[in-house]
């Protein structure tokens, strides 16, 4: 989902309904898993886990977009990323 949020943020000219659907579906899947296994929520607060997930998102977004400049750390909060209708500007 983070890779799609990066693409949404850094390729505004390519935004479309399919990206919104993908982000919404991935977000719902994450929230469902967090409800089923509440102990997973602790990972969201671990800086090393977050850094690894962010690195994976950057790698995927770079490969899919051809872009190379992304923030070193996730600029969004956990609450933003998981909010039902939030999308980065």
Strand content: under 5%
Which runs of at least 5 residues are low in confidence (pLDDT < 50)?
none
- The total count of helices amounts to 4
Order of helices and strands: HHHH
Question: How many distinct beta strands?
Answer: 0
* Mean of pLDDT: 95
Structural class of the secondary structure composition?
A: mainly alpha
User: How large, in whole angstroms, is the Cα Rg?
Assistant: 13 Å
Domain module count: 1
Q: How much helix is in the residues?
A: 55-70%
Describe the protein.
The protein has 4 helices and no strands. The protein has 89 residues and is mostly helical. It has one domain. The radius of gyration is 13 Å and the shape is globular. The protein starts with a helix and ends in a 7-residue tail after the last helix. 10% of the residues are buried. The model has no long low-confidence stretch (mean pLDDT 95).
Outline of this structure?
With 89 residues, the protein is an all-alpha fold.
Set out the fold topology.
Layout: H1 2-10, H2 17-36, H3 47-65, H4 78-82
Helix pairs in contact: 1-3
Features of the shown structure:
mainly alpha
């Amino acid at each position: 989902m983070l890779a799609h949020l990066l693409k949404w943020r850094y390729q505004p000219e390519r935004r479309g309904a399919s990206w919104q659907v993908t982000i919404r579906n991935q977000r719902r899947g994450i929230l469902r898993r967090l409800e089923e296994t509440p102990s997973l929520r602790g990972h969201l607060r671990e800086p090393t886990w977050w850094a690894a997930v962010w690195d994976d998102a950057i790698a995927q977004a770079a490969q899919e977009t051809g872009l190379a400049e992304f923030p070193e750390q996730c600029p969004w909060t956990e609450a933003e990323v998981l909010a039902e209708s939030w999308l980065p500007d």
